[in-house]
């Protein structure tokens, strides 16, 4: 049994709607759907791709849904971006106002040089907190996966009355032991340039990114290879690899934030849904079941898949999230 004080390690995470086309002759008219229907049975709502300036930093985000509807804030994992949520955004946007930002160094947000902008979870939490203020979010349901939890918990703790519900998908609340973290441990211990170089040679590779997707998955033919290929390509952009290494190094500092998040959830007991792959190489099913230690009434669904559960179980997860939010908000 791992205690809240144990130092092990943690975490760190498509398809587009089919568009029918055809010609209309002078003699016959063909009516074609404008967009794919979501799971709610309503036509899908367009997703907007926007940016917002946060102290001179351009933060990219996806937004869909009607202003005034309950807000779902979606925070991505490593080494992904808001792109990992593209299908889920479409499915939720008929009933909710969805925001999914890219962290600095990820997706289409700026990647400032690390000498001018620290890549730490405290810094990301501060930026996403300002993002929430700037786009006018007052309260939200948080959908967090992987890095998204450590960022989202900071936003939650800084403004404790904003969280209405929590959805955790392969997301840490307790530290987890995993061989996946082995190559970063020397860097955690000594912080030297040599240890950083070796960590980069391991983690900034296609094999590692692909492994997050395929490990623990029953049927890998359900996975779109373009997902991990595009994420690997993003890591090769100038500055992006260094940003990721800085954040992987900063994992070691997150014990107090996890403990504070546990205390917050235990005291407030917000509606909580856990939808995770039980074969996750980072946060296995036993780790995800621990949410009930602090939120006894948490609704938990463990899928027979790995870390990137949305990649092969997106429709099932969307169905559970729709049902949960319909009751929680």
From TrEMBL:
It holds the Pfam family Abhydrolase_1. Gene3D superfamilies: alpha/beta hydrolase (3.40.50.1820). The keyword Signal applies. Residues 1-26 form the signal peptide. The keyword Signal applies. Residues 70-312 form the AB hydrolase-1 domain. It comes from the Bacteria. Keywords: Signal. InterPro entries: AB_hydrolase_1 (IPR000073), AB_hydrolase_fold (IPR029058), Epox_hydrolase-like (IPR000639), Haloalkane_dehalogenase (IPR051340). This is Pimeloyl-ACP methyl ester carboxylesterase.
